[in-house]
Amino acid sequence: MENQVFQKGNTFRLKITCKDFSETLTDPTVLNLKVYDSTGTAVLTKAIGDLVHASTGVYYYDWSYTTLGDYVYEFSGTLAGFSMLAWAKFSIEYWT
After folding, report:
1. DSSP label at 95?
2. What SS3 class is residue 77?
3. How far apart are CA 15 and CA 58, in angstroms?
């Protein structure tokens, strides 16, 4: 998976699209978002009620963070009775 790069101080969107095994967009019953820094420390934790429900199966959270570094965000939860986990890497950098 390609590492996303965001500029320090900008707002960026952490997004997930949830589909069941038949590829149908489906809302999860449980959904959590966590962001971890390069030491494995959680720097953000959000539950389904904190996320924007854009449409069936589509959720996001807009976030602005100013600490430079490498991060991983993960969405975890329960979808159609099964555990789910999706993650991606990103970096926050400073451009002049």
Report:
1. -
2. strand
3. 7
**Where do we find the tokens 């600490």?**
67
Q: What is the pTM of this model?
A: 0.90
- Would residue 23 be called left, alpha or beta, if left means φ above 0 and alpha means ψ between -120 and 50 degrees? left
Distance CA(37)–CA(57), nearest Å, equals 27
Q: For residue 59, which of 49, 67, 68, 69 has the smallest C-alpha distance? A: 49
**What pLDDT, in 10s, does the model give residues 43-81?**
999 999 999 999 999 999 999 988 999 999 999 999 999
**What domains, with CATH codes, occur in the chain?**
4-93 (2.60.40.1930)
Amino acid (one-letter) located at 58: V
